[in-house]
Amino acid sequence: MAAQRNLIREWREQYARRVARIDFEPLGDAPFRTSFRMIFEDLRMVREALSPGLTFRDNELVKDGDDTFSLVIAQSRGLDFAHQGRELWIGRDEATLLRLSEIGSAGSRYAFGYVTVLIPPAELAARGTCPDGTIMRRVPRQSESLQLLRAYIRTLERGRLGASAQTRETIRRHIIDLVALMCTPHGVLGETGLSAVADARLHAALEHITTRFHDPALSLAAAAKTQGISARYLQSLLEASGSSFTERVTELRLQRAFALLTEAGEGPRRISDIALAAGFSDISHFNRLFRARFGDTPSAMRAERRKKE
CB under 8 Å to 139, separation ≥6 — which residues? Predict the structure, then answer.
């Protein structure tokens, strides 16, 4: 128990209060555990998990003068909040907005996790948004802007977005636009907000395609349906980003087939099995596409690889 208390005290002093500008009070006697991952440093977007307890900002911490808004997205069975003299509970994948200039707490009697995004007040004000009505209000998981933001976060975590200064600024602007959309009555935003929604929809669709490309039943219409948009609109988003739905899916399937064909294993898999595993249902069509993409047939490429072993 003494070692446990020392571990918590060291974490609070070295990281929680000094770096994250929060504190933590454990609940119960469960072993103390924590994990932290920076997702997008420009908006101090982090994913954090903790053992049962409460994270909080007290009177001493709020003296730092930070008046940033913090969007908190629950990643566990639920989170309890106390802020501005009110209490609130939100479930997994739901969110609420807090203001760091005021004391408050968030936590659970169970192990819990969350993603936080810190938004400067001036950024929301510049978009004509007054977020005060969103503070300590539950944003349901069905909220389109929240769904798009969660998809954007997943794409960031998988490292599928560029790292150039221009790209990072675009990402930053779009994330703020989506948060502003959550804070706007009836979800009305100007042209920049619409651009952010289109970009987030594109990345959500790409995420779906990337995780489902090996399913032979994947189609443009099916992918569009998961995003709640028309197939024509999704196709226009994809084409504006550089390639069509068919081109993207075909490239992903060919790359997967190439990897399966050239990987070492206990025994060679049949070409037809590799094609099916990559998402191709027509073996002749697969052979033609593979040769056009890599300059040789799958069987010839495998034979060449064996010569080099």
Answer: 90, 94, 95, 96, 97, 146, 182
Name, in order, each residue with C-beta under 8 angstroms of 11's C-beta and a sequence gap of 6 or more.
24, 32, 34
Instruction: Name the burial class of residue 14, with classes exposed (0-12), middle (13-18) and buried (19+) by CB atoms within 10 angstroms of its CB.
Output: exposed
Domains of the chain: 1-141 (2.60.120.10), 248-308 (1.10.10.60)
Beta carbons of 81 and 136 less than 8 angstroms apart: yes
Region of 93 please: left (phi>0), alpha (psi -120 to 50) or beta.
Answer: left
Q: Model's pTM, two decimal places?
A: 0.70
Give me 193's structure tokens: 């907000």
Residues 6+ apart with CB under 8 A from 10: none
Q: What is the pLDDT of residues 115-139, one digit of tens each?
A: 999 999 998 888 777 777 789 999 9
